[in-house]
Design a protein that fits this description.
Strands 1-2 form a two-stranded antiparallel ribbon. By secondary structure, the protein is mainly α. It has 21 helices and two strands. α2 runs antiparallel to α7. It has a domain of 247 residues. The longest helix has 29 residues.
Length: 482
């Protein structure tokens, strides 16, 4: 493993990340707030540590290999989450402990959206902006890593689309072409954010709220500048805009690239994963809206508006709220959380197991049924008329098995910390699926659970965002052998 090159990359990441702590100072100046010193201190600390990593290795040459890619990918989230907690910990408001600040930072960068902060409406604008910015930065980090890096490491859901993905996905090592890939993805991501912000502003949000919510919408994060989330605005138009951009952001960003590059919207429907995603959204909407109406929870109009919005928000693992869905008839909250396991598409900013994996699992299940009737038949699994290698299919089964094992291990750990089963189960689902809101004691926020439970959930958020194996591989002796 090239430690010098890894240190150089990590140092550059920290130095770049430190610069993002300067933009909240501009916000503080605009609104006449006194938080500038907090962000300057955090900036100086982060920049200094970045320089400590970068200077000794600045002249190192060579390319990142697969093993280095694992380390850099994991450190990207671990280190940035730790330093991202500094402004939240140093600021007088919200005045968080290290554990709470780390939880908030991990939740932001992994675009989970679980929060320990209440009274958002009374916090300094600079702090609110910083939280939203964390999610936006995490979102573009997710897209670049998921589309450009994880396929080559063999753990991302995107490896089944190697032929279609832009960038160096066919290479056996990480090459400079990642820069080109990242540039294209960033432009698409930035364009979606800008259009979303303009739509929010046109629908009645203030400029500050429009920018902040566009950050968390496109990142599928769920942080808001108000305690009532999207419900604060009490606007059907804003709910519709939010739903549209959550759905769009839940699609594969490589697919966005192909649509943009070839100027053909039909590519969305032609893609099997996107098609399954749309079908699941539609069926979920119908079930949710009808159940809300026939259970007497809302009238017909409210059932449609609230049902569609909350279904899209939870299934795409965004986590915005316009109503207390945890208070809906018992079936619905668990149904919505169940759909969050499907999550969004591979190569998107969403969480969950990913639609692409579920699509292949479904085909495998059907194949095993046919094999009972025709034991000797050759029944390859195909996506876009391309045969899926058995290795990929086996890897997906392994991923889902480990995913469920970790899920119930986390549930047991949370139960051991004193949480009730509904809280433990939903908090684990919310963390591992990078969703955010849960049920029971974590329906509103996570401030009242213990430090041990927060540590467990932080690891859950990181595992969910890192596609599990990316993190677990670092704990195997084989990885560290020469």
């Amino acid at each position: 493993m090239h430690l010098a090159i890894t240190a150089r990359v990590l140092g550059v990441l920290l130095m770049i990340f430190s610069l993002t702590m300067l933009t909240p100072i501009v916000v503080a100046s605009i609104y006449g707030e006194t938080t500038s010193e907090t962000f300057l201190t955090a900036f100086a600390i982060t920049l200094f540590v970045g320089l400590v990593f970068w200077l000794p290795s600045k002249n190192s040459s060579g390319e990142l290999r697969t093993r280095d890619g694992f380390v850099v990918t994991v450190l990207f989230w671990l280190v940035l989450s730790t330093f991202g907690a500094l402004p939240l910990m140093l600021s007088e408001a919200p005045n968080l402990s290290f554990m709470d600040a780390l939880f908030e930072s991990v939740s932001g960068l992994t675009t989970t959206g679980a929060t320990v902060i209440s009274g958002l409406d009374h916090l300094p604008k600079s702090i609110l902006y910083y939280r939203q910015q964390l999610q936006w930065l995490g979102g573009i980090g997710i897209v670049v890593i998921a589309v450009a890096i994880l396929p080559m490491l063999g753990v991302g859901g995107m490896q089944i689309y190697r032929a279609e993905t832009p960038g160096p996905v066919k290479d056996s090592k990480l090459t400079p072409r990642i820069t080109e890939t990242a540039n294209v993805l960033f432009r698409i991501y930035l364009a979606l954010t800008a259009v979303c912000a303009l739509a929010y502003w046109a629908a009645g949000m203030s400029g500050f709220d429009a920018i902040g919510h566009s950050f968390s919408t496109v990142a599928i994060g769920g942080f808001s500048t108000h305690d009532a989330s999207i419900g604060f605005f009490d606007s059907g138009t804003i709910m519709a805009i939010c739903s549209f951009f959550m759905i769009v952001s839940g699609l594969n960003f490589a697919l966005h690239f192909h649509v943009w590059h070839n100027r053909k919207l039909g590519y969305y429907w032609a893609d099997p994963e996107a098609r399954m995603y749309f079908y699941l959204l539609l069926v979920g909407m119908l079930i949710t809206c009808l159940y809300l109406y026939y259970s007497g929870t809302y009238d017909w109009d409210q059932s449609i508006s609230q049902g569609i919005f909350q279904l899209v928000s939870i299934m795409t693992t965004t986590g915005f709220a316009t109503a207390e869905f945890n208070a809906w008839p018992t079936f619905l909250p668990f149904f919505l959380l169940f759909l969050s396991f499907f999550g969004a598409c591979a190569g998107s900013t969403g969480g969950g197991i990913k639609i692409g994996r579920m699509l292949i699992l479904a085909q495998q299940g059907i194949r095993e049924i046919y094999r009972l009737v025709h034991p000797n038949a050759l029944l390859p699994i195909k996506i876009r008329n391309r045969k899926i290698p058995e290795r990929v299919a086996d890897a997906i089964w392994a991923f889902v098995g480990v995913y469920l094992a970790i899920f119930y291990l986390m549930v047991l750990l949370l139960l051991a910390s004193g949480l009730d089963y509904v809280t433990a189960w939903s908090a684990t689902a919310a963390a591992l699926n990078n969703l955010g809101p849960g049920l029971g004691a974590v329906a509103t926020n996570y401030a009242d659970i213990g430090s041990f439970a927060k540590w467990v959930l932080c690891w859950g958020m990181l595992l969910g965002r890192l596609e599990i194996f990316t993190l677990l591989v670092l704990f195997t002796p084989t990885f560290w052998k020469n």
